[in-house]
């Protein structure tokens, strides 16, 4: 998982004043936390009577990230940190061009680095199953992403491609990314092809859609110091096929993250499920493209990104093409689906030929 290494443009004293005046949460200190990969969001810890997690975002509030965990928590599901209200009962406060949200602070480590115990893998499965089983009322669905099978951040691809094939960049991070992109351009084109073909197939398939976290990788799973498990950062919450979440625990998105044992433990908690291979393959291809486009955007197009953030985005862009990592996993999944379809087609042709009436003329 990448990290935002540069603090937000909003000064610390302004954030402390916002917490005190708008949320009624006075704090004695504020600490920047290098978490998450959203170039327009920053995380902090507030030192108060009880520590508080503060998130500041450039632009309007990300309503899915507020409404979805509030809805899940209100239905008695543990393992979710719901937003804290302002004095006026809102779920966010506005600071000029920025929005601020607060939630309880859970001390622990993200599972991307620390891993999960056997009991936590089962608990993770049970948590996601309970989320997926919740009804999605219309007033909540109206504020969530409804799956259209079009990868995120694809709108950046034309400009990124133009930059990659344009004049050589002046600064080293941009030059390194351009060189890496050109080296792997055939792979990127293959991902685009598979995502488009699988997406069209899934649009016709009409798979059942459920409430999904939509970003349920281990970087968003917090292993608490008290042993509890938390699923955090719901900004991408969506109404989508359950494979949107299951991708992260059935096959995974990174080398060494999720093996057969972890998947089996997760399934014990989640219960019976037969994921659609085409949906898993689509989501893996879409995730790879999302990373390629978002990291490329940070390095090549985002004038506001700090040097440390751009360097980290470059590292992750290059790492996604390493053997066994996300791009490999995505292309392997897509190839398996294509091979399976070809076998079924061949079997169908054979059966049809065997059933032809004999020529008795």
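-> sequence recovered:
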């Amino acid at each position: 998982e990448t990290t935002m290494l540069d603090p937000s443009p909003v000064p610390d004293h302004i954030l402390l004043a916002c917490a005190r005046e708008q949320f009624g949460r006075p704090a004695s200190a504020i600490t920047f936390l290098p978490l998450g990969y959203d170039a327009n969001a920053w995380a902090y810890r507030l030192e108060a009577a009880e520590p508080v997690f503060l998130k500041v975002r450039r632009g309007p509030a990300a309503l899915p990230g507020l409404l979805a965990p509030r809805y899940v928590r209100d239905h008695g599901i543990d393992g979710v940190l719901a937003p804290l209200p302002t004095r006026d009962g809102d779920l966010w406060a506005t600071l000029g061009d920025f929005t601020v949200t607060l939630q309880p602070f859970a001390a622990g480590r993200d599972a991307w680095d620390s891993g999960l115990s056997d009991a936590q893998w089962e608990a993770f499965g049970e948590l996601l199953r309970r989320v997926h089983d919740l009804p999605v009322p219309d007033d909540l669905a109206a504020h969530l992403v409804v799956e259209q099978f079009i990868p995120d951040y694809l709108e950046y691809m034309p400009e990124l491609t133009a930059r990659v094939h344009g004049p050589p960049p002046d600064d080293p991070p941009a030059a390194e990314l351009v060189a890496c992109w050109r080296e792997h351009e055939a792979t990127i084109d293959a991902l685009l092809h598979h995502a488009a073909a699988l997406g069209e197939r899934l649009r016709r398939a009409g798979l059942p859609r459920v409430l999904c976290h939509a970003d349920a990788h281990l970087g968003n799973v917090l292993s608490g110091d008290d042993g509890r498990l938390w699923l955090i950062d719901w900004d991408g919450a969506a109404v989508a096929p359950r494979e949107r979440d299951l991708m992260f625990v059935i096959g995974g998105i990174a080398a060494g993250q999720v093996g057969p044992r972890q998947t089996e433990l997760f399934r014990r908690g989640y219960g019976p499920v037969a994921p659609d291979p085409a949906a898993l393959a689509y989501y893996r291809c879409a995730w790879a493209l999302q990373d390629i486009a978002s990291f490329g955007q940070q390095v090549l197009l985002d004038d506001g990104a700090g040097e440390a953030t751009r360097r980290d985005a470059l590292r992750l862009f290059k790492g996604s093409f390493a053997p066994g990592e996300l791009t490999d996993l995505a292309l392997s999944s897509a190839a398996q689906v294509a091979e399976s379809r070809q076998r079924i087609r061949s079997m169908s042709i054979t059966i049809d030929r065997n059933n032809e009436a004999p020529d008795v003329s």
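The CA atoms of residues 167 and 230 lie 46 Å apart.
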